[in-house]
Amino acid sequence: MNVVVVESPAKAKTINKYLGSGYKVLASFGHVRDLPAKDGSVLPDQDFEMSWEVDSASQKRMKDIADAVKGSDGLFLATDPDREGEAISWHVLDLLKKKKVLGDKPVKRVVFNAITKKAVLDAMAAPRDIDVPLVDAYLARRALDYLVGFNLSPVLWRKLPGARSAGRVQSVALRLVCDRENEIERFVSEEYWNLSALLKTPRGDEFEAKLVSADGKRLAPRAVKTGDDANRLKTLLEGASFVVDSVEAKPVKRNPGPPFTTSSLQQAASSNIGFNASRTMQVAQKLYEGIDIGGETVGLITYMRTDGVQMAPEAIDAARAAIVDQFGNRYLPEKPRFYSTKAKNAQEAHEAIRPTDFNRTPDQVRKFLDADQARLYELIWKRGIASQMASAEMERTTVEIIASNGADKAGLRAVGTVVRFDGFLSAYMDRRDEDEKSEDDDEDGRLPEINARENLAKQKINSSQHFTEPPPRYSEASLIKKMEELGIGRPSTYAATLKTLSDREYVVTEKRKLIPHSKGRLVTAFLENFFTKYVEYDFTADLEEKLDRISAGELDWKQVLRDFWQDFFAQIEDTKELRVTNVLDALNEALAPLVFPKREDGSDPRICQVCGTGNLSLKLGKYGAFVGCSNYPECNFTRQLSSDGNEAEASGLNEPKALGADPHTGEELTLRSGRFGPYIQRGEGKEAKRSSLPKGWRPEDIDHEKALALINLPRDVGQNPETGKMISAGLGRYGPFLLHDGTYANLESIEDVFSIGLNRAVTVLAEKAAKGPGGRGRGTPAALKELGDHPDGGAVTVRDGKYGPYVNWGKVNATLPKGMDPQSVTMEQAMALIIEKGGKASSGKAKAKPKKAAAKADGETKKAAPKKAAAKKAPAKKTAAKTKKTDT
């Protein structure tokens, strides 16, 4: 019996069916060990010695693997065919060697690009050894990410409170988003005019032609700048006669694009079906690992982390056969199409993403898939088969027209495209992202019959005013495209990088556009001013190329680390003398449009409007940056920076706004603005009651009725008929809630707090109690957030208990560390807390351990160890049940 090790249980289940009883397939659940989030995990002074840690869940899995290997004939490492897959195999093998269970048993590495019976059996018949250069590239990346994060992030915490982390790739991606926001803020719109004529042929057909020349000169795009110029040209055209000068029809061929790579799939999924990068990779993972198709479990697509654009020869043959069957001989080109990869590292340029069987059409497999799987499979199938189809044949007609008005002449042009043969377009057509569309794009509509030298009748002259627009904000798709163009990161890491920016609340997404949060802009401005080199696009791209050369066996990985660390450590040391005032001065200048937005009255935006003499400036508090007055404490004016990077709506509340008296107390209700946003206050002094405006409530909409309702929360709903105890509704730290006899239940919206009646409240509490296990008359608190399923089964959730929020899995409850936002908890953080809690229960170790787990999960700590710069804590992706691979 041979043991086969793969990453995920789904993959193990599928492969087990292919190999039969002579093999035992076990899952490692992703990486089995990682660098612990503590001092000394990477030691530059000891030639970058790395200390690895195996968490408790992985220890159990490794024990199962080791026990199986003891009684086996051999070991096959069948993890994914990329750098991370190679690293997982290397980790598993290294641990088994340390356990001394291998003896003289043969160990082989096998890779397959698709989980089909043929692909798996062919791979098992052609094993190889561990690819050492590929493992070296993994070690270099992991060490670099640790050294950057664990040394740069503490600098941020000390000099820029509220910042959460910095990373080698994440910070550069964030800079792209922030640079685009800066461009938008600096953009000055310019007026321009477009002129066109609606003309009619002698046969009575109408078409439109655009003005392209006047006064004997060719007009550049947006050349007509003023209304006066536009009116002069419009007058010329109004009185002109129109003659066709030339008609040119050219045949044009449009060739299909290659099959998908990781990045092009993420871009197309965003533009065509609205998936973000993370969702695309989640769905693709399931399609790759195997779907039950009528009793047979089979992978429907090839491996989805790739920068290769070529399909295997047998796949090309299968695609060509499917083209004839599905579309007909006319759609089959004479020869197969071959595409060349643009990837800098051929060793990681695997086969493109394609269906494992082109005969499995989207219509045939749709009934076995959920909606998202069906949509993504259809996209991959269509792009794959289109890549081998005949070119689309078009005819592009350009008509040049002369407008004559006495001695004045002007030129107009009409362009039209006719599809003579749709070719590959019958299977797949890219939907252009809004970011790529130009306001000056030619219309490709069909033109009527037009002949040279014939006269045209003027129907109407159109003159329209326009204004240039700033560059659009990035979408996930366009940001991935830009990162790929610049060589920042690698395709398999884009989704994880974007997720990190979102999890850190550095970027928010609105209408599929990425908007830098004020925290993200502050971090970027800080790094650009004090760590310029490490957020430069060329530097990051050059480092990526060196890492690729390591995997190709061309560079020594430790020498790359030595060269990097020497300069980076010196830069870290220089910041020790950096004063917070230096930081604030630099940020005030770098972020002037954000910190000091222009005022409608034209007054100096840096002068305090309340006292009239103080200078406004960024201030740093425990919870981040805000704008304050230099005359503090005499003037206590403050203004927050809003989440979307613009001045907060409440910033205009330079003095309290009276809303009327509370009829119960007689105290005045006022609307005010503080460091943390707008709020309602009743009365004056330290004992005055205050209530922040709920999310979505705008200050300008607050009247006496709303203020009164908000300040008097919690509201008594009524007595529970079963217990006789009062049910109340309120707004807490984690949102709207019901409270009865010490038990909380979540409400869906703030409106429910004010409108929910007794019957509905009793039902909500009963539903919440029914979900719990019972006991002591108390149900399990309702889930604040559902994170997904634990690898060993069962849901992992975040809940709010009597002593604060906690993570729950089955009977395991792990309290969240103080200051951790329950809504921002990730599965990785939850798993680390659950594992640590389990370890504590079995070993009885010190109580401080759960806090370490939290720091490990969140990748950061509030206090930096004073001993070494190399030992500071920072973000590190640590996953217990890792079936996905990340590199940020």
UniProtKB/TrEMBL annotation:
GO terms for cellular component: chromosome. The active site is at Y303 (o-(5'-phospho-dna)-tyrosine intermediate). This is DNA topoisomerase 1. HAMAP family: Topoisom_1_prok. The record marks H31, R141, R142, D145, W157, R305, R504 as: Interaction with DNA. Belongs to the type IA topoisomerase family. Gene3D superfamilies: 3.40.50.140, Bacterial Topoisomerase I, domain 1, Topoisomerase I, domain 2, Topoisomerase I, domain 3, Topoisomerase I, domain 4. Its EC number is 5.6.2.1. Residues 165-170 are annotated as: Interaction with DNA. The keyword Lipid metabolism does not apply. Releases the supercoiling and torsional tension of DNA, which is introduced during the DNA replication and transcription, by transiently cleaving and rejoining one strand of the DNA duplex. Introduces a single-strand break via transesterification at a target site in duplex DNA. The scissile phosphodiester is attacked by the catalytic tyrosine of the enzyme, resulting in the formation of a DNA-(5'-phosphotyrosyl)-enzyme intermediate and the expulsion of a 3'-OH DNA strand. The free DNA strand then undergoes passage around the unbroken strand, thus removing DNA supercoils. CDD domains: TOP1Ac (cd00186), TOPRIM_TopoIA_TopoI (cd03363). Residues 864-888 have a biased composition (Basic residues). Residues 131-572 form the Topo IA-type catalytic domain. InterPro entries: Topo_IA, Topo_IA_2, Topo_IA_AS, Topo_IA_cen, Topo_IA_cen_sub1, Topo_IA_cen_sub2, Topo_IA_cen_sub3, Topo_IA_core_domain. Residues 646-699, 770-793, 838-888 are annotated as: Disordered. NCBIfam families: topA_bact. Monomer. Keywords: DNA-binding, Isomerase, Magnesium, Metal-binding, Topoisomerase, Zinc, Zinc-finger. GO terms for biological process: DNA topological change. It is an enzyme of class 5 (isomerase). Residues 1-117 form the Toprim domain. It comes from the Bacteria. Pfam families: Topoisom_bac (PF01131), Toprim (PF01751), Toprim_C_rpt (PF13368), Zn_ribbon_Top1 (PF01396). GO terms for molecular function: DNA binding; DNA topoisomerase type I (single strand cut, ATP-independent) activity; zinc ion binding.
